[in-house]
Amino acid sequence: MEKDPRFQLLKIGELATLSGVSVKALRVYEKKNVIRPVEIDEETGYRYYSADQLKQVEALLELQEMGFSLSEISKLLSGECSRDDMVELFDEKEARLKELIWKTEAKIDEVRELKNKMTNGEEAEKLKEMSDDERAWYLAKLIKVSENNVRQLLSDVLWL
Q: Which residues of 80-93 are buried (b: 16+ CB within 10 A; e: fewer)?
């Protein structure tokens, strides 16, 4: 008696459990042509996946964690990308992540600067005497004219 090949396959719920993603997410991945079931039972509509597709889901999750979009992941996992296309995708992602680091570091500097202004010297004394509305207006003014915001604005204008 020959074994039914579907018993070697995983149902969508089994793949979801093993990979730690929801069934709904797997359906989205299918719809976006990222990870498609190897078989769909025409009578029941059950979706079946190979065990190898668990590794694809794990790769997808790692790439998402790095900030890749589903369309970029689809290209990478499908083999549609040439080596040059892959290098370009990774270079673009690296540049975006570096920009995010730069912006985050600028925000950290801004928070430190604001904290220093608010807790030290005459700024702190002025704040104690202000009403809530005056304090909110003053904070907004300090934030808008901070050195980092001016740098960001100039950077944005130069790249337009």
A: ebeeeeeeebeeeb
